[in-house]
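Input (MBL fold metallo-hydrolase):
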Amino acid sequence: MRQITIGSMRIDRLVEIPSLAFDKTWLFANVTDEVIAANRSWLDHRYIEPETGRFILSHHSYLVRTPRWTAVVDTCCGNHKPRPRVPAWNNLNQPYLENMAALGVRPEQVDFVMCTHLHVDHVGWNTRLINGRWVPTFPKARYLMGRAEFRHWEAAHRANPPTPVNHGSFEDSVLPVVAAGQAEFVETDHLLFDDRDAGLRFAPAPGHTAGNMQIHLNGRGDHAVMSGDVIHHPIQCAEPWLSNAADVDPAAALATRVTLLEELADTPSYLLTGHFPAPTAGRVVRHGEAFRFRFED
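Output:
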């Protein structure tokens, strides 16, 4: 993804895992081979494996910089974290911080970490392992998390379930940030900056998790949406009814997805999702009664 400019904000894709293929029914329980075949003409080998039909996802953050502040949006899976139920995420050793350094940013330069939601593959680099302890990766940052979602997972964690909450990520990637005093809990409609050149606000995006959010960036007439997991794969632009297996409320997730697609369709606004493979960024266009995603090369 080339760098995108929204007002005075510069946006880069910060990669953890550039490409992972997931079984189609693991990602979308209601998908069919016929639906995949109907969309092959516009989704090439970068997005669906030709031999298997598996869906290809990227795991990445967004790095947002202005002259006044630097932010990271969603922090992927993280290194050295035990995730035995999903081998692709288990005990990773990825050059995430090296990739950040290549973009010109060190962890101590980050002012904000913004979480669209608190699933395991969106909070991992909130912390890193130092001397046997999970500590905040970004020592000077304010970590913005949805209040409602945190309370939801906190209640689940306190119930002491037989399997760790969110594959253990609540304990090793969220609670250490809270313990360090760096967490800031926000409402789903939180306005962080109202500047003409660099406006940033959270917006409700119900359905994927309890308290799920998306992030809108506005500046000098330009607009981008960081949608987190409102949409996982480009095929959902054409087939919004495809439901991710992790959606807590599939009907609400569908309504949120369709509303976002309608809002962005045939406009100059960028859609920046949490998992579209490279080149990742693009725009939504109408295609009959549905939509397509046009990648920006």
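The radius of gyration is 18 Å.
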